[in-house]
Structure formats: C-alpha cells, structure tokens
Amino acid sequence: MSLENIMSISAGAMDAQTVRLNLAASNVANADTVDSSPETAFKAKRAVFKTILEDQVHRGGRAYAGSVKVSEISEDQSAHPALYDPSHPFANQSGYVFGSNVDVMSEMVDIKAATRHFESAVEASNSAKRLLMRTIEMLQK
Hints:
The protein is of the alpha+beta class. It contains 2 helices and 5 strands.
C-alpha cells in the first residue's frame, strides 16, 4: 500500500467523522425546538457510512479500497414528544406542541466516538508520515 493510499484513506475517514460531528452538533443545537406537528418537528440526522470496496475504486475520484465515505444523511424516525401547552404560539388545535426527537446524551456519546475515530485517522496518517521520513533518512546514509 502506497503512502498516497494511506493518506487518502485517512483523509476520507477524517472527512466522514467531520460530517458526523457536525450533524451531532446540529442535533444538540436543535434539541429544544418545538413545532405544531410531529411531521414538521426537528428530526435528528445521522450520517450513513459506506466502505469503498475494491470493485468500486475510481482512481480519477481519488477513492481507494478500504476508504469510507458518507453515502447519505438520514433522519431519525423515532417518536416526537408531545407537550400540552395551549398558550404556546406553535400549539396545534388540540393545544399540543411537538419537540424534537433528539436524545442529547446519545448525541454526546456520538460526538465522543466521532472524536476518537477522527483522532485514530490522524494518528494513522502521522504514523505513515513518520515511516516515510524514517525511510528517507535511511536512504540518505
């Protein structure tokens, strides 16, 4: 495996984890929002990852086998909490407002996991760079 492959795979992993972190941060930011119906209330968003397999490699796009990419961003379909508050400006005819389906604790765990995965990708890239530098030093002697 060449250095370019290792760096590309690490960069793809870092890009994917950045998307995951941004989605989790957006979910936390919208955790306390409400709306007049469960259909229009904020739905937590999740990144769906896809591994690039050997037969899916496209050299022109700089994708390498073993790399990962975000294939789609899906919405969490879990239930929205209904809160009875007839004085709220978004209350429906029955007096209910619907909160987002974001679980802040799950989002914090997801942020922590994404951060760890990002750090692992950085460390893999740094290790490859150190090995290359060591090889160059050995060849210069």
